[in-house]
Specification:
By secondary structure, the protein is mainly alpha-helical. It has one domain: Recoverin, domain 1 (Orthogonal Bundle). Helices cover 64% and strands 4% of the residues. The chain is built from six helices and two strands. The chain starts with 6 loop residues before the first helix and ends in a 6-residue tail after the last helix.
Length: 99
């Protein structure tokens, strides 16, 4: 659908696609499914974050109240929080690309 889209549009479309492929018929993920998805699909961003208090807080929130489900908005907010605290983000900022 976004064959002609920008890199940013394609990135967001991919996030939505991954979420939707894992969501239940109501369009939500269980907290356990969210944690598993982050560990399998977002590994490079969360790698090495295990000792950071904010990371522990985010993961412990996913471990609590397993019957509560996460919608796409909450999923995206979680991705943003994990990205902002990731060591990988600084490495990405240091890479200069030419087009």
């Amino acid at each position: 659908a976004l064959g002609q889209g920008s890199d940013l549009e394609k990135a967001f479309a991919t996030m939505a696609l991954v979420y939707n492929n894992n969501a239940d018929p109501e369009g939500k993920l269980s907290r356990a499914e969210t944690k598993s998805l982050l560990q399998t699909q977002f590994w490079h961003f969360i790698q090495g974050q295990e000792n950071k208090p904010k990371y522990q807080e985010i993961i412990s929130d996913l471990d609590e109240e397993p019957e509560n489900k996460i919608d796409f908005e909450d999923f995206m907010m979680t991705l943003v929080m994990l990205t902002l605290m990731s060591d990988l983000l600084q490495e990405i900022k240091n890479v200069k690309t030419t087009k």
